[in-house]
Amino acid sequence: MPDSEEKFVDAMTSVKKIAVNIALPQTFDLKDEEDCVEEWNLFKMQLINYMKITGLDRESEDIKISFFLTLISRKCLKEYSLMKIEDPSQLKNIVAAFDERIIPKRNVIYERYKFGLAKQESDESVDKFVSNLKSLAKSCDYNTMEEELIRDKIVLGVESNDLRKKLLSEKDLTLQNAVDISRLFEATENRMRSITEKQESCTKDETVFISRGETP
User: Fold this and answer.
1) Percent composition of the chain: helix, strand, coil (DSSP 3-state, to 5)
2) Coil, strand, or helix at residue 138?
3) What whole-number distance in Å separates Cα of residue 120 and Cα of residue 132?
4) Rounded Cα–Cα distance for residues 122 and 157 (Å)
5) How far is CA 2 from CA 5, 8, 15, 55, 181, in A?
6) DSSP 3-state assignment of 214?
7) In a 3-state reduction of DSSP, which class is residue 152?
8) Which of 29, 38, 166, 209 is disulfide-compatible with 216, CB 3.0–4.6 A?
9) Quick check: 115 and 133 in contact, CB under 8 A?
């Protein structure tokens, strides 16, 4: 058995002793679905954590690469065999090549355009609106300005003008303050709407009784 194979077997034996109760990262497969990027990012996170816990991150690059290749599908292996990788003896370079293959090139101007158009829909909750803004902002490369711009977009994009006035009246408004104020406003509006609907229902019932000559 060649030395490289012996080292791999020894490393795997050592890993098995440590990783008896630790699940292996799920095999990654290239898919056409939109969630392929998310699946790849999750796979990388699991891979890094597993290698740290088991000590594989301290093994040689050959061992790490062999382990990585056992966790990707046959389709990925075919892609790997066709990749032109600068210094393929380093796992980080192989992962970077897969990043380039899987993660689409972003048009930052277009991503910021989509962020700029975002507004709260009539049936959209505050939490859902804020979550959508945060998701859109991730692709905009706003860096240290991200929270401020999300805050500004909440003020500009909320459906209620009354809420907008309230947010604009706040001094030193932070993103968290904007979210908290918006949530409270939404909860109050929902409660008031519920009370109004109950009152209207009672009024209708009273009208029916009166028209029948009955006492409610």
Assistant:
1) 70, 0, 30
2) coil
3) 9
4) 11
5) 5, 10, 20, 23, 66
6) coil
7) helix
8) 209
9) yes
Residue type (1 letter), 181: I
Half-sphere exposure of 20 (CA within 13 A, CB side): 2
Q: For residue 46, which phi and psi values (nearest 5 degrees)?
A: -65, -40
47-74 per-position pLDDT tens digit: 999 999 888 899 999 999 999 999 999 9
Contact present, 104 and 90 (Cβ < 8 Å): no
Instruction: Convert the pLDDT of each residue in 125-157 to its tens digit.
Output: 999 999 999 999 998 999 999 999 999 999 999
Where are the domains positioned within the chain? 2-102, 108-211
CA 41, 46, 52, 54 torsion-angle sign: negative
* CA 130 – CA 151 distance, rounded (Å): 9
Share of the chain above pLDDT 90, in %: 62
Q: How confident is the model at residue 109 (pLDDT cuts 50, 70, 90)?
A: very high
Mean pLDDT over residues 108-115, rounded? 94
Q: Do the Cβ atoms of 27 and 71 come closer than 8 Å?
A: yes
